[in-house]
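Students often ask why we bother encoding 3D structure as a string. The short answer is that it lets us treat folding as translation between two languages. Here is a chain of 616 residues written in the first language.
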Amino acid sequence: MRKSIRRLRRLFCFPAHRHITMIALLSFTVLFVSDIAKAHSPRLQPYSSWKNEWPHHPEATQYKPSVACGYPGGGPTATIDAGVVLGTTTSLPAATATVNKFLGIPFAKSPPERFSPPESPGKFNEPINATSWSPACIQQFVYPKVSQEFVEYVFNNPAPAESEDCLYLNVYAPSTPAPADGRSVMFWIYGGSLQFGNAGQHAYDGSWFASYEDVIVVTANYRTNVFGFPSSPEIPITQRNLGFLDQRFALDWVQRNIAAFGGSPEKVTIFGESAGAFSVDALLTSYPAGSKPPFRGAICESGQYSYRANPFTSQLPSWEKLSQALGCPGSYSSDLACVRAANATTIKNIIDEQIIEFNPEPDNVTLVSDPAQRRLNGDIAHIPVLGGTNAQEGRVFTVGTNASTILQEFLPNQTALQDYILAAYPIGSPGIANSWDQAAQIFTDYIFQCACAAWANATASVGIPAWRYYFNASFYNEQAYPQLGVYHSSEIELLVFGTYYTNGNSTTQEYALSNTMMGAWARFAKNPMGGPGWNQVGTGTASDVLVGAYIEEAGGQYMAPNGSILTGAWDLGVLGQRGDVMGGGVTVIEQYEVDYRCGLWLPIYAAIQALSDPSV
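And here it is in the second language, the structure alphabet:
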């Protein structure tokens, strides 16, 4: 069972790198990197050297899309640069407008050439029927079966068809006329440890969000695992992170075409969860200061890239293992043609059963090698951000294990440091009643919460507007496994997309908190500089401290349950009543209330950055 859980953890810790070796020792001894390492370290390419490698379409300045209208069959149509797409309309209870849905629009050549960057789809010969979701890109899940079945039950249910022909996107737009300057657009990047995921998953249906908040939602597929991140030495390093190139190609499509659906290309907010949040932060840190990205706001849910819990490792061994398993002749350094010619299902079965993982590599184009340093230097695009974590992220990764096992995996053979950390998480302390609670809180803090705190504080320190949330609400009727609590990804279907409505057993608390959370996300998307409705990180004062589902209460004070008056620099928005797992609204507290152990982990993040980038 422990081996199965270990593999499950490795799958979800975005992206899934190998175990940390000697990080504990390095966290206390690595203060400087030698001048020799600095002299020979790979340097970040200047923006001017790589900007032209990004998807670029000369016709973008010439083409003017036409706004969606009806076609003879009764559904909506939109004319984009490639041709006409035919959609469908859906009505939702208590919604302000029906929603036009355009599903499965190709944004790149279908199918893409295996292990190659996306290409333009060209013109349609006839209107495209965009009324159903496309297949998912080929996904990878862990073996043995017990782990695979659990993962798929929670995150891939119902299972979609899979295909290499998968570069399609979905647009959800209110059917009412858009304002003259266009609606705000929210571009979703799904999670899945960069090993699996699907823009057509029911949980990511943007209909509710679009209808209730009057925004346009776009979800796009991107390639994952070896199909998205092949590490063949025959592929140029700037063309290996195909999944990230797919995301950027889809964002480029939005810039050229979203006006056809009533959206504004100047009002795009990117948002993602887990590996999707990792992708969002990879985008943020790859744009230097002074540049103009194809988005104006960014939301990171349960993930970021700048402060990692694992160092980068070479991906070449994974390619070598796959090549050998396929029986390719000769050296793995010259077998790209052989792997390209192999059956896709055969490749999928091999990487599943042999647990061969493929992850992105720093190329200083799609993935910079020094994100934390660039963020601290302010050398990233000054885009307002909203980020946060769930209160019990780690519970889904620590079922059936204990803190000692977790720490031995994170910090192998570092007994003294393991004991030091355990002492900071004693059983019997608030929120830690047993060994599972202890393991889960350590996992939550190290992998998610403290990394997010470092990310948010570093962002605010250089004058980039940053807001932070803390999701603390669980509902028994939505538990994927007994006692998971506020587990990793539990906010998505329940609250962000509002798709929990369809399960037929939602509660009044779910309804209230969903309204609050969708409203906060949409408020940020409509005015990123204004934020979601509470204080910016680093600027909190005794001001607006309580935001309800429909009303805001101000007054500069917060009355504690015992009647005392609290004051302070409140800048962390708690979704779900403070200290409770039920209820709606946002309560704003000081970050320290949940971050007080984070000082324990910050030196380790710094050591990992030093390992990953010798220039640090």
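Translate back mentally: Residues 304 and 421 are 23 Å apart (CA to CA). Keep this in mind for the problem set.
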